[in-house]
Amino acid sequence: HRHEAGARMGVLSQADLSKFDEQHATILAVTDCESIPALDQGSEHLPKHISVVYENDARMALEALRRGEPDLVLIDLSMESYDPLRLCSAIRAFDMTRLAPLLAIASRDETRHVVRALELGVSDYLMTPIDSEELAARVRTQLRRMRHIEHLRSSFDQTLEMAIMDQLTGLYNRRFLGAQGSRLVEEAHKSGEPLACLMVDIDHFKMVNDTYGHDAGDHILKEIAARLTTSVRGSDLACRTGGEEFAIIMPRTPRESAHEIANRVLRAVSGDKVKLDDGQTLDVTVSIGVSILHEGDKLATVLKRADEALYRSKQNGRNQVTD
Ligand code: GH3
Ligand code: MG
Ligand code: MG
Ligand code: MG
């Protein structure tokens, strides 16, 4: 179990790395030569699941790389039809291809080329005549390195997502509201542009849970979160701050627009009945509090003011907007 968690966090065992070796891979060999014998089918050391594509046109090679086709590029530094060093630097210049494994092939009298190629970011090199076992080993090392990076990247993305997202609704969580909301408040103070905040709380949600069950409650939470998301702009920060409470921070939004948006949220929630898995439908409403950022306000201040407005919406009968 611990091992699995470790792998998810990006820590890989030798066995995990060996599994990478069994995955299919494509090598793009950029050379003027007809073929590189050490690479060819039947070469005893290169595994069968590694296929090789030859390209003598550097521009085509770059295109293929940008389309993400090859897993590794082999560049023949003796190429005459194109400056291979230019190709190396072009590959390293683009985000898409910056980390692509790049192996150079050089002859003994091209040491200066090799030094330059390494400066330009080539991952590794081989001297001619190429030993097929050495080539296979260097290819394997680079493919492993690349796959390890990809694994780390995706586990980092996953970890980040877990840290800032609410798992049930897919909205941002309270922690992220604290961090990103504070940044937005600071920016608003700096630019002098208005910022508005909505506090949204589902009405009588305890009764919904008690009547329809907790799973139905969860389903409704997801549905309301989706309706919130579609009612605000992409630049707005929509968070689930607690059980059935949401906060939305809206940069560049004056008071009147904030009220319009709040009313849009209200209608998006109450306008259509929510359908449960068993086919039952029910009416759901929310109460909303609106607040506007004042000079010197911290995030907590503007949130508290919205919360107080929300309380008044509840007091006044729910399913309404108050500031
Ligand atoms: P009000 O209109 O005054 O807001 O009443 P309310 O019942 O919505 O408010 P209250 O704070 O009394 O109850 C909130 C309920 O939300 C309590 C709990 O059962 C429910 N709840 C909180 N988190 C979750 C959750 O993650 N899933 C489900 N299904 N219910 C939740
Ligand atoms: Mg409550
Ligand atoms: Mg409630
Ligand atoms: Mg509540």
Automatic annotation (TrEMBL):
Keywords: Phosphoprotein. It is an enzyme of class 2 (transferase). It catalyses: 2 GTP = 3',3'-c-di-GMP + 2 diphosphate. The modification 4-aspartylphosphate is found at residue 76. Coiled coil: none annotated. Its EC number is 2.7.7.65. Residues 26-143 form the Response regulatory domain. Residues 193-323 form the GGDEF domain. This is diguanylate cyclase. The lineage of its organism: Bacteria, Pseudomonadati, Pseudomonadota, Alphaproteobacteria, Parvularculales. The chain holds residues 131 to 453 of 456 of the full protein.
